[in-house]
Specification:
With about 130 residues, the chain is α+β, with helices and mostly antiparallel strands. It has 2 helices and 9 strands, in the order ββββαβββββα. The chain has helices at about 45-55, 120-125; strands spanning about 1-10, 15-20, 30-35, 35-40, 60, 65-75, 80-85, 90, 100-105. The strands form 3 sheets. The chain has a 4-stranded mixed beta sheet, covered by helices on one side. Strand 6 (about 65-75) and strand 7 form a beta hairpin. The mean pLDDT is about 95.
Amino acid sequence: MKQVVAALIVHEKDDRLLICQRTKYQPLPLKWEFPGGKIETGEQPRDALRRELDEELGIDAVIGDEVARLVHRYNNGAALELRFFVVREFRGELQNRIFREIRWAARADLPQYDFLDADLRLVREIAEGKVY
């Protein structure tokens, strides 16, 4: 099972979350997601997330608590385990290095975005105030 980490990056002033839209050239094109990626062999989850956020957004993130863990199975039988961590502080300016778009979104507005299927349950829980 593929191991994946993702960040719920919280805007320090108004509690919005950073969401990212895939390009039309990536798998599952134009879907929205939380930034992150695969855990490499021998890597700890927090280290993997710190690396991914540096690669994707150019930031040095302080990885907080794990707030959700879920398993998602795709129609083709492939499965992945997703771990979501809160990030409330980071160093550096956000740089969009790989996405079509990045934006800050209010919790309640998250369900309006076309998120990856694997993220949908968490998106609903965040919008309802149940997570983070």
